[in-house]
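Page header: ASSEMBLY MODEL / two components / 549 residues total.
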Amino acid sequence: MLKDITLGQYFPGNTVAHRLDPRTKILLVLFYIVALFCAQGVVTYTLLALCLAICVRISHVGIRQLVRGLKPVLFIMIFTGVLNLFFTPGGRNLVEWGVIRISEQGLHNAVFMVLRIMLLIMGTFLMTYTTSPISLTDGLERLLNWMKRFHVPVHELAMMMSIALRFIPTLIEETDKIMSAQKARGADFESGSLIQKAKALIPILVPLFISAFRRADELATAMECRCYHGGEGRTRLHVLRYEGRDITALCLGGAIMVGVIVMSRFGL
Amino acid sequence: MAEIIRTENLRYAYPVEEGETPVYALRGVDLGIARGSFVVVLGHNGSGKSTLAKMLNAVLVPTEGSVLVEGMDTADERLLLAIRQRVGMVFQNPDNQIVANVVEEDVAFAPENLGVPPEEIRRRVDEALKAVGMSEFTTHAPHLLSGGQKQRIAIAGVLAMEPECIVLDEATAMLDPVGRREVLATVHRLNREKGMTVVLITHHMNEAEEADRVVVMDDGAVVMDGSPKEVFTQVEPLRSLGLTVPDTVDLLDRLRHHGVEVPLDALRVEECADAIAAALQ
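Prediction written out in full:
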């Protein structure tokens, strides 16, 4: 169960997709999302799917890993699909059977909605698969640097995020340990109704929370001992620098986004 | 030898609720740590040794008395960073002091905080990892390393600040024997080769054998202070404090009780064996 967590999972590699500046990748994903939400018809969707396929190809990330990322949102996809399918009026009715009615517009919406979610998730997952969490938070911090002027604690948020990512494996290990300890004393996590299962989780969560707080306290002390005093005057080991390939990628991504927006104006 | 850390009549009480009488964890500690020395602080749980450690780099500030690090008072908040840069601290649980997902990023954390330029950070990180013998793990994920390796990374993280002194607050307590040996060998080498001042807080007697100086604490005060030989030959006083003596001394002490004429101060195993062999001839 605990092995399924793909959040922040990173497959190291040395392709162009891996070497791009994290800021570039975040911006590209942003472009991609905007383009996806503007896309209207078959042409634009095909174009965007093709772009994703090319990026996947470049990054050497397995299709299987990418598809596995869809599993947690499967329910949302089905839900959206079904909802759109049955409850969108408009156009000719394809099926009419009692209260169930599927319109042409409904079918169209359902297919494109599901496609949109799938592409959206796969696109963002491609970024997290090819970018280490540290450089991702680093990129985010640098991208949002201008918000510091409005007293947004950008550095603190980035630090919190990277620490949270750092502690995921530690806490998973700890959860496993606590579960084993509870099982050894006869706890049952597998059988029973949903409510019983949820209740069985309480004896895991309580010690986990207590230990997480203790860890946080110790980590804070250890960080202070290593002279941490916020983001002020801090330097970095790896300084982010835009390279030629970043500019190329950004231009290309921007052009595609603009292209998609223009094409969707014509309903393509 | 000049002193790097000096405590004067150091007293500390943990904060209590109003109306309760404060309990002093430290009651008048006067201690000078010589530059370049290897000092082991021993004591059982609740003896105040960990509290003492936390006072040495201003994690805790004295209730009464003072701590001076290279003449800087730890109670002065403006000197906080300068003090912490000079006195590095390694804690008990290696998992709870590693900040980053990559070994080199973690080692770089302290110099990044100090605003060191990137090229200089690179040099310090490589040097620190080399000093603890972890160069080949530069880009590994810390959570996949063993306890001893993690603790060495934590030591490297402190070394990257280029401190004058390292305080290890029971840094070996959670490790297996192999990990413990790794960490001890590392700090001994740093002490010998780089002249790093080391303060090792522990309750393992055997870790004190090769120290320059052993300080025994009980009930918030220093009760014994001297070379390992001076301290460990006082078998009865140590036992009355609830501390065991190293196995070698224990053996020699028993032999003496049975009328075998052996010296008590043969701390190392080889020395001890030689002493017994000599007595038997």
